[in-house]
Protein 1
Amino acid sequence: MTAPERWTGGPVGARAVCVLADNPGPMTLDGTNTWVLFGACGDALVVDPGPADEGHLRQVLAAGGSRGGQVTAAVLTHGHLDHSDGARRFAELAGCPLRAVDPAYARDGGLADGDVLTVDDLALRVVATPGHTSDSVSFLLSDPADPADPADPAVPASAGDPAGAAVLLTGDTVLGRGTTVVAHPDGALGPYLASLRRLRELVAQVPVRRLLPGHGPVVDDPLGVLDHYLTHRAERLEQVRAAVRSGARTPREVVERVYAEVDRALWPAAEQSVRAQLDYLDSLAAEATDA
């Protein structure tokens, strides 16, 4: 099997730049994507400053000031350390506010579904997408210059946005390669499935042409990837059901049967997802009993 081409970050269209953290691994793929989003006047907003790596944080700061403006805010998609551990330090370096759902990181205010953050002419809408973690959010970016690819004449303008289609920053809810973990016990499968369905509906309605994930490359087929995620979760759930019926008694035993083809370095993460799936199946059984 040919190894996937390594994602290295860099510009995505005219308004977005990914500064890739140097923390590759089984859970982080090529590293954490820190997204720098630029307004027309050069100011920037940073999504997920990343790990507590001074060199990375200063690279992000330099990127944020590269168009003559300043970083006006930093926000988090969720509180996992590969996205958040350097957030406070970055806010100090940039002299900017830091906002997040998790109160531990909401130094200058929280984030709630429907909130709109602005930088110059850009508007970033908060979309609550719990499941990977309880505090996970995505960000819908409406840009009159279409940050995904402003000069592409082959892409029609979206219905509600005559200047172009939107992009969606998904954190770890949807990755650029592979599928994500449901980080039990904080993460939960029921909310995660609801979040995937919500994103699919949003992508189709807006429309959204690209996903900018928290790890891995840009997703150019949002509907296809979201359909794959939903199908994959349904298939895994059936496999977990079958494993339990065939005698698996512990999450580890389920992992050994259902995730046998997965790199063992990922088994601890798979076990978190299995625990989330078992909890979800228990909740379905309880609902059926109550009915």
Protein 2
Amino acid sequence: MTLAELLAAMQLPFVQRGIITILVLAVAAAFVGLFISFRSMEFVTDGLVHAVFPGLVIGYVVGGSAGIMPGALIAALITALVLTLLEQRQKLASDAAVAVLLTSAFSLGIVIVSQQESYVSQLESLLFGHLLTVTDTQLWQLIVVAGVATLIVILTWRRQLYRAHDLRGFRVAGFSVFKTDLLLSIAISMLVVAGVQALGNLLVIALLIVPMAVARQLVSKLFLLVPVAALVTAIAGFGGLTASVWASFSHGVNLSAGAAVVLLLLLIYGLVLLGRIPSALRRSRPSATTGEVAP
């Protein structure tokens, strides 16, 4: 496949929809992912992702592809509320609550989808997504849901920062911890729903966590974290889509675009960590002037 043919293939409508999907998710995930990272909510986010699965399945069973987004959205909002209530009232440790919801919800989804005739193909679609088969309707749904999630974070930006870095001061200042936490959980849940059709239930977690992890390794200034994280996702997204199209047209290989995007994200993260090894080794060497040894 020549470069000209590859560029022509990238102009196809379904590929263009995939590119737009990735760009929308890149921006939204950068904003939401910032506070996932600041609040160390990676495990909670993983729980939200898995808890959405029954909603995906029920929505698909009831309304087909058109029912996936509404079903997932309802499940996500319910889960966000339940997790926030459990954490605030401390009836269960946060990690325990997440683990219970994660396993029970995911098992329920598997039981429901296994009753369908085309069990394997439906399960694969729900778990791993289909980035290159996103329809116009699904794209608009994704834009709206991701946009609302981003807007929630932007409108509560100062409160979320305050809550993340000084919980005691946040309470003393009279702010509601429950409302602030619930709004962030809703934003995370909505972004999970937005990304799940493109990347699937299992892979969307990487979009929420890895880009910001890369950004925090590369820059330390707050105002640079969101743009860098969005750029990382955009690069991995375009690279993954290109690899998928090239593999399909040149070699007839059905390479999952969503999986390719996630693999590139992980590759970028790995390269960034490798690049930091020399500086880490230099810091760990004994100081020649003071005679101190780094711990």
Protein 3
Amino acid sequence: MADNDDNRPIYETDERGERVMVRSVVSEQAVYVRFINSVTRPVDIWWRDFQGFRKHYVRMQPRTYFNVDTYVTHPWEFTDPTTKENYVVQNKKIFRAPSCLAGVRHRTNWFICVQVRPLRNTVLLALAQHLNDLSRVPPLGLPRELSNDLEDLIYAIQNTPPPPPRP
């Protein structure tokens, strides 16, 4: 599954085609958003600070929502706490509220979704959640690589770390 444990700054291409660091810029245009976890797994919400470092904001359980007062230029990310897989809002890994929402006094809903993932990962995750016991893997007769990956995923699900403490 995706490795997303590091806290290195990341880069993206802006509208002028220049490579820029993903970070919060200014705190001028306030927006009020509601992130809705529409997946069947917990989701960690991360905010990129002014230096581009990722700060843990909250862990959402499946089918819940969380209200955030933020700014147009502040980037947000969403990951699975166990698999480190990136989730998306409007098919984008990095969410920034549209500038047209600046000054709007009501919350807008933004759905956190699963991005298109390889079939192999989808099946492994479904099996791991269904089996939920390492002893049930060998009787399946899977090839060694799949069996090992399935066991690793079951172990990871059973040992998901708690959310980082808030500063």
Protein 4
Amino acid sequence: MDFYIKEGGVRTSFDYGQLEISGDEAFGFRPFQLMVASVAGCSIGVYRKILDKQRINYEDIKVTADVTRNADEANRIERIHLHFVVKGYRLNQDKLLKNLEVSSKNCSMVQSVKGSIEIEETLECIELSK
């Protein structure tokens, strides 16, 4: 990966497109936002693969990330709480929760920050009716 200085931040390019990074939201994504997005995106992606592989039906999955930062230590990320909301018909909450634990162990981003950032994952099931 190559990164280039630009006014107000840094720029890099990937096959998918260009990414602007800056501590000022007016010039790009803030580094902490990218870190949280990486953890959340990896987590939901691995979770989805596990559910799909087990042929568990769901209509939608949403993850809300709540971040705790420490202003006294360079505003570092101390904790990320990922709240998974799974919507579907005849959901088995115990099975969904067990799969969430498996996904955490198989998410490269969660494993990369283990010991540095506390990751908490919670699950909410919303039963849809026909």
